TrEMBL record:
TPR repeats lie at residues 44-77. Pfam families: RPN7 (PF10602). It is found in: Cytoplasm, Cytoskeleton, Cilium axoneme. Residues 24-153 form the 26S proteasome regulatory subunit Rpn7 N-terminal domain. Keywords: Cell projection, Cytoplasm, Cytoskeleton, Repeat, TPR repeat. Residues 177-190, 204-215 have a biased composition (Basic and acidic residues). One of its GO terms (cellular component) is axoneme. Residues 173-215 are annotated as: Disordered. This is Outer dynein arm-docking complex subunit 4. It comes from Petromyzon marinus. InterPro entries: ODAD4, Rpn7_N, TPR-like_helical_dom_sf, TPR_rpt.
């Protein structure tokens, strides 16, 4: 375990220096030791760090693979919120917008359960961005509005400014979208505006889908 801790610390330092291969090697050594000695917490830490290395250098597929292996090892709702958000961000980068939305909903559920406002904010933004790419602008507006409210609540002025810009863009695109003939994608993805129950059901379905896919 001491040796694993050493490899982990070295990997973190190497990552900060931009040494991807060295950092990855150190964290993989930590993971190997954890698996050999059935050290659950160390295994979770190593997978966490391996995912971070891959994500930092833009290898999002490998980051997802590492973080998905970590899912059964999650201990708290806050950790779950962070993990599903990060996996969702990777899917967003990979243009897997449905998967990004689904992981965002799971992250939001966990963030609400943990009572953490910052991760609720992050999850709202992730879902909104996924919906923008799915051209479900009505839903995107709703989630950006929720994100803006949360940013205001926690007094994150930088986030408020960025979200306000994104919200205006979503509203503009929504206004330009023909109301009489919405796209098929919009029909499939749209959440009925002004109906919290519909929104909750959509989030629940996405969260359940993510549970099935990630096992």
């Amino acid at each position: 375990q001491v040796l694993g801790n050493l490899h982990s610390s070295m990997g973190n330092a190497q990552l900060e220096l931009g040494l991807m291969e060295a950092a990855l090697s150190s964290h993989q050594k930590d993971l190997k030791i954890a698996k050999e000695h059935n050290l659950v917490e160390s295994k979770s830490r190593a997978l966490d760090n391996i995912g971070r290395v891959y994500a930092r250098f833009g290898n999002f597929k490998q980051a997802v693979k590492a973080w998905e292996e970590k899912i059964p090892l999650v201990q708290t709702e806050l950790e779950r919120a962070w993990l599903f958000h990060e996996i969702g961000r990777c899917h967003l980068e990979l243009s897997h917008f449905r998967e990004a939305r689904g992981h965002g909903h799971t992250a939001l559920t966990a963030a609400r359960a943990s009572g953490d406002d910052e991760w609720q904010l992050n999850a709202f933004v992730l879902v909104a961005q996924a919906q923008m790419n799915l051209r479900d602008y009505k839903s995107a507006v709703k989630y950006f509005e929720d994100a803006l409210d949360k940013a205001t609540l926690i007094k994150d002025t930088a986030a408020e400014r960025a979200i306000a810009v994104a919200l205006e863009e979503a509203k503009s695109l929504l206004n330009k979208q023909p109301k009489e003939s919405p796209s098929e994608e919009t029909k499939k993805q749209s959440i009925i505006d002004g109906n919290p129950r519909e929104e909750e059901e959509e989030e629940k379905r996405d969260a359940e889908d993510m549970e099935k896919e990630t096992g």
